[in-house]
Protein backbone atom coordinates (compact mmCIF):
# COMPACT_ATOMS: atom_id res chain seq x y z
CA UNK A 1 0.00 0.00 0.00
CA UNK A 2 1.37 3.40 -0.92
CA UNK A 3 1.99 5.81 1.92
CA UNK A 4 2.81 8.76 -0.29
CA UNK A 5 1.29 11.91 1.17
CA UNK A 6 -0.78 14.12 -1.12
CA UNK A 7 1.04 17.07 -2.57
CA UNK A 8 0.35 20.28 -0.71
CA UNK A 9 -0.07 23.65 -2.32
CA UNK A 10 3.21 25.54 -2.71
CA UNK A 11 3.92 27.93 0.13
CA UNK A 12 3.70 31.55 -0.95
CA UNK A 13 6.53 33.82 0.03
CA UNK A 14 6.05 36.82 2.27
CA UNK A 15 6.70 39.09 -0.71
CA UNK A 16 3.95 37.38 -2.71
CA UNK A 17 1.50 37.70 0.17
CA UNK A 18 2.30 41.38 0.63
CA UNK A 19 1.98 41.97 -3.11
CA UNK A 20 -1.47 40.35 -3.18
CA UNK A 21 -2.57 42.29 -0.10
CA UNK A 22 -1.46 45.55 -1.68
CA UNK A 23 -3.31 44.72 -4.89
CA UNK A 24 -6.51 44.03 -2.92
CA UNK A 25 -6.12 47.26 -0.96
CA UNK A 26 -5.47 49.33 -4.07
CA UNK A 27 -8.47 47.93 -5.94
CA UNK A 28 -10.65 48.39 -2.85
CA UNK A 29 -9.56 52.04 -2.69
CA UNK A 30 -10.33 52.53 -6.38
CA UNK A 31 -13.69 50.86 -5.94
CA UNK A 32 -14.49 53.12 -2.99
CA UNK A 33 -13.59 56.11 -5.16
CA UNK A 34 -15.82 54.81 -7.98
CA UNK A 35 -18.81 54.64 -5.65
CA UNK A 36 -18.24 58.20 -4.41
CA UNK A 37 -19.70 61.46 -5.57
CA UNK A 38 -17.05 62.17 -8.20
CA UNK A 39 -16.47 58.63 -9.42
CA UNK A 40 -12.97 58.01 -10.71
CA UNK A 41 -12.38 61.62 -11.77
CA UNK A 42 -10.35 62.29 -8.61
CA UNK A 43 -8.46 59.00 -8.73
CA UNK A 44 -4.70 59.50 -8.89
CA UNK A 45 -1.81 57.21 -8.11
CA UNK A 46 -0.71 59.57 -5.35
CA UNK A 47 -4.18 59.57 -3.75
CA UNK A 48 -4.40 55.77 -3.90
CA UNK A 49 -0.91 55.39 -2.44
CA UNK A 50 -1.84 57.69 0.43
CA UNK A 51 -5.07 55.80 1.14
CA UNK A 52 -3.40 52.38 1.28
CA UNK A 53 -0.40 53.65 3.22
CA UNK A 54 2.44 53.27 0.73
CA UNK A 55 4.59 55.67 -1.25
CA UNK A 56 3.77 56.35 -4.91
CA UNK A 57 7.03 54.68 -6.06
CA UNK A 58 6.00 51.53 -4.17
CA UNK A 59 2.66 51.57 -5.97
CA UNK A 60 4.32 51.87 -9.36
CA UNK A 61 6.21 48.67 -8.69
CA UNK A 62 2.89 46.79 -8.86
CA UNK A 63 0.78 48.93 -11.23
CA UNK A 64 2.04 50.55 -14.41
CA UNK A 65 -0.17 53.62 -14.09
CA UNK A 66 -3.68 54.84 -13.31
CA UNK A 67 -5.10 53.05 -16.34
CA UNK A 68 -3.64 49.78 -15.09
CA UNK A 69 -5.43 50.23 -11.75
CA UNK A 70 -8.73 50.88 -13.51
CA UNK A 71 -8.26 47.96 -15.92
CA UNK A 72 -7.56 45.57 -13.05
CA UNK A 73 -10.60 46.93 -11.19
CA UNK A 74 -12.75 46.18 -14.26
CA UNK A 75 -11.49 42.59 -14.33
CA UNK A 76 -12.18 42.18 -10.61
CA UNK A 77 -15.73 43.47 -11.02
CA UNK A 78 -16.42 41.12 -13.94
CA UNK A 79 -15.02 38.17 -11.96
CA UNK A 80 -17.40 38.92 -9.10
CA UNK A 81 -20.39 39.33 -11.42
CA UNK A 82 -19.61 36.01 -13.08
CA UNK A 83 -19.47 34.37 -9.65
CA UNK A 84 -23.06 35.55 -9.11
CA UNK A 85 -24.13 34.26 -12.49
CA UNK A 86 -22.52 30.87 -11.90
CA UNK A 87 -24.27 30.61 -8.54
CA UNK A 88 -27.60 31.36 -10.24
CA UNK A 89 -27.00 28.66 -12.86
CA UNK A 90 -25.85 26.12 -10.26
CA UNK A 91 -29.26 26.33 -8.57
CA UNK A 92 -31.04 25.17 -11.74
CA UNK A 93 -31.79 21.67 -12.92
CA UNK A 94 -28.67 20.32 -14.68
CA UNK A 95 -29.00 20.61 -18.45
CA UNK A 96 -31.92 23.06 -18.31
CA UNK A 97 -30.47 25.69 -20.63
CA UNK A 98 -33.62 27.84 -20.61
CA UNK A 99 -33.66 28.08 -16.81
CA UNK A 100 -29.91 28.77 -16.76
CA UNK A 101 -30.23 31.63 -19.24
CA UNK A 102 -33.18 33.20 -17.44
CA UNK A 103 -31.58 32.83 -14.00
CA UNK A 104 -28.21 34.23 -15.03
CA UNK A 105 -29.65 37.21 -16.92
CA UNK A 106 -31.89 37.98 -13.94
CA UNK A 107 -28.81 37.90 -11.71
CA UNK A 108 -26.99 40.23 -14.11
CA UNK A 109 -29.90 42.69 -14.09
CA UNK A 110 -30.03 42.64 -10.30
CA UNK A 111 -26.30 43.37 -10.11
CA UNK A 112 -26.56 46.21 -12.64
CA UNK A 113 -29.37 47.96 -10.78
CA UNK A 114 -27.63 47.60 -7.42
CA UNK A 115 -24.24 48.75 -8.75
CA UNK A 116 -24.84 51.45 -11.37
CA UNK A 117 -21.36 52.98 -11.11
CA UNK A 118 -19.68 49.61 -11.66
CA UNK A 119 -22.05 48.84 -14.53
CA UNK A 120 -21.22 52.15 -16.19
CA UNK A 121 -17.49 51.52 -15.80
CA UNK A 122 -17.30 48.01 -17.24
CA UNK A 123 -20.24 47.98 -19.68
CA UNK A 124 -21.36 51.59 -20.13
CA UNK A 125 -19.49 54.68 -21.28
CA UNK A 126 -17.03 54.65 -18.40
CA UNK A 127 -14.55 52.23 -19.91
CA UNK A 128 -13.87 54.48 -22.92
CA UNK A 129 -13.86 57.63 -20.81
CA UNK A 130 -11.36 56.23 -18.32
CA UNK A 131 -9.30 54.22 -20.83
CA UNK A 132 -9.19 56.42 -23.95
CA UNK A 133 -6.23 54.54 -25.43
CA UNK A 134 -7.79 52.18 -27.99
CA UNK A 135 -5.09 49.57 -27.51
CA UNK A 136 -5.80 49.46 -23.78
CA UNK A 137 -9.60 49.60 -23.92
CA UNK A 138 -9.88 47.13 -26.81
CA UNK A 139 -7.53 44.68 -25.10
CA UNK A 140 -9.51 44.92 -21.88
CA UNK A 141 -12.84 44.54 -23.66
CA UNK A 142 -11.53 41.45 -25.43
CA UNK A 143 -10.38 39.97 -22.13
CA UNK A 144 -13.75 40.64 -20.52
CA UNK A 145 -15.51 39.11 -23.53
CA UNK A 146 -13.42 35.97 -23.02
CA UNK A 147 -14.44 35.90 -19.35
CA UNK A 148 -18.15 36.35 -20.04
CA UNK A 149 -17.93 33.86 -22.91
CA UNK A 150 -16.55 31.33 -20.46
CA UNK A 151 -19.92 31.50 -18.72
CA UNK A 152 -22.35 31.63 -21.65
CA UNK A 153 -20.57 29.63 -24.36
CA UNK A 154 -21.05 26.28 -22.55
CA UNK A 155 -24.80 26.98 -22.29
CA UNK A 156 -25.09 27.72 -26.00
CA UNK A 157 -22.82 24.79 -26.83
CA UNK A 158 -25.20 22.48 -24.94
CA UNK A 159 -28.14 24.03 -26.75
CA UNK A 160 -26.49 23.70 -30.17
CA UNK A 161 -25.53 20.07 -29.53
CA UNK A 162 -29.22 19.22 -29.26
CA UNK A 163 -29.71 20.19 -32.91
CA UNK A 164 -31.40 23.50 -32.18
CA UNK A 165 -32.27 25.68 -35.20
CA UNK A 166 -30.02 28.64 -35.93
CA UNK A 167 -29.30 30.88 -38.92
CA UNK A 168 -27.07 29.50 -41.65
CA UNK A 169 -23.82 31.36 -42.23
CA UNK A 170 -24.87 32.57 -45.68
CA UNK A 171 -27.96 34.17 -44.12
CA UNK A 172 -25.83 36.61 -42.13
CA UNK A 173 -24.24 38.55 -44.97
CA UNK A 174 -20.46 38.78 -45.49
CA UNK A 175 -19.78 41.88 -43.36
CA UNK A 176 -21.83 40.70 -40.38
CA UNK A 177 -20.46 37.17 -40.69
CA UNK A 178 -16.90 38.50 -40.46
CA UNK A 179 -17.75 40.54 -37.36
CA UNK A 180 -19.43 37.56 -35.73
CA UNK A 181 -16.39 35.44 -36.61
CA UNK A 182 -14.06 37.91 -34.84
CA UNK A 183 -16.32 37.90 -31.80
CA UNK A 184 -16.46 34.09 -31.82
CA UNK A 185 -12.66 33.94 -31.90
CA UNK A 186 -12.47 36.32 -28.93
CA UNK A 187 -14.80 34.02 -27.00
CA UNK A 188 -12.65 30.99 -27.77
CA UNK A 189 -15.68 29.31 -29.32
CA UNK A 190 -14.39 28.40 -32.78
CA UNK A 191 -16.33 25.12 -32.63
CA UNK A 192 -19.68 26.91 -32.59
CA UNK A 193 -21.46 27.66 -35.88
CA UNK A 194 -21.62 31.37 -36.68
CA UNK A 195 -25.41 31.20 -36.52
CA UNK A 196 -25.26 30.12 -32.87
CA UNK A 197 -22.90 32.96 -32.00
CA UNK A 198 -25.18 35.33 -33.90
CA UNK A 199 -28.02 34.31 -31.59
CA UNK A 200 -25.74 34.91 -28.60
CA UNK A 201 -25.10 38.45 -29.84
CA UNK A 202 -28.81 38.95 -30.52
CA UNK A 203 -29.59 37.92 -26.96
CA UNK A 204 -26.80 40.07 -25.56
CA UNK A 205 -27.83 43.27 -27.34
CA UNK A 206 -31.38 42.94 -26.01
CA UNK A 207 -30.29 42.07 -22.47
CA UNK A 208 -27.81 44.94 -22.51
CA UNK A 209 -30.41 47.40 -23.79
CA UNK A 210 -32.80 46.50 -20.98
CA UNK A 211 -30.01 46.75 -18.40
CA UNK A 212 -29.28 50.27 -19.66
CA UNK A 213 -32.96 51.18 -19.34
CA UNK A 214 -32.94 49.99 -15.74
CA UNK A 215 -29.61 51.52 -14.69
CA UNK A 216 -30.08 54.92 -16.32
CA UNK A 217 -33.78 55.25 -15.52
CA UNK A 218 -35.07 55.41 -19.10
CA UNK A 219 -38.89 55.26 -19.28
CA UNK A 220 -38.91 55.06 -15.49
CA UNK A 221 -42.37 56.65 -15.35
CA UNK A 222 -43.75 53.36 -16.69
CA UNK A 223 -41.12 50.74 -15.92
CA UNK A 224 -40.03 51.30 -12.33
CA UNK A 225 -39.33 47.60 -11.89
CA UNK A 226 -37.78 46.03 -14.96
CA UNK A 227 -38.02 42.38 -13.90
CA UNK A 228 -41.34 41.72 -15.66
CA UNK A 229 -40.08 43.41 -18.83
CA UNK A 230 -36.83 41.44 -18.59
CA UNK A 231 -38.59 38.10 -18.22
CA UNK A 232 -40.89 38.88 -21.16
CA UNK A 233 -37.87 39.72 -23.32
CA UNK A 234 -35.98 36.56 -22.32
CA UNK A 235 -39.11 34.46 -22.98
CA UNK A 236 -39.19 35.80 -26.54
CA UNK A 237 -35.50 34.94 -26.96
CA UNK A 238 -36.10 31.42 -25.64
CA UNK A 239 -38.94 30.94 -28.14
CA UNK A 240 -36.59 31.98 -30.92
CA UNK A 241 -34.12 29.37 -29.64
CA UNK A 242 -36.80 26.68 -29.57
CA UNK A 243 -36.66 26.43 -25.77
CA UNK A 244 -39.30 26.53 -23.05
CA UNK A 245 -40.26 30.23 -22.77
CA UNK A 246 -41.33 29.84 -19.15
CA UNK A 247 -38.77 27.60 -17.42
CA UNK A 248 -38.93 26.85 -13.73
CA UNK A 249 -36.23 28.93 -12.06
CA UNK A 250 -34.95 28.05 -8.62
UniProtKB/TrEMBL annotation:
The record lists the lineage as:
Bacteria, Bacillati, Actinomycetota, Actinomycetes, Micrococcales
Q: Does the keyword tRNA processing apply?
A: no
SUPFAM superfamilies for the chain = Homeodomain-like, Tetracyclin repressor-like, C-terminal domain
User: Domain HTH tetR-type: where?
Assistant: 21-81
Q: Which residues bind DNA?
A: 44-63
State a single Pfam family of this protein. Answer: TetR_N
| Species this protein is from | Promicromonospora citrea
Q: Which GO terms describe its molecular function?
A: DNA-binding transcription factor activity; transcription cis-regulatory region binding
Asked whether the keyword DNA-binding is assigned, the reply is yes
Name under which the protein is recorded: HTH tetR-type domain-containing protein
Q: Keywords in UniProt for this one?
A: DNA-binding
Show the InterPro entries listed in the entry.
Homeodomain-like_sf, HTH-type_TetR-like_transc_reg, HTH_TetR, Tet_transcr_reg_TetR-rel_C_sf
Domain of life the protein comes from: Bacteria
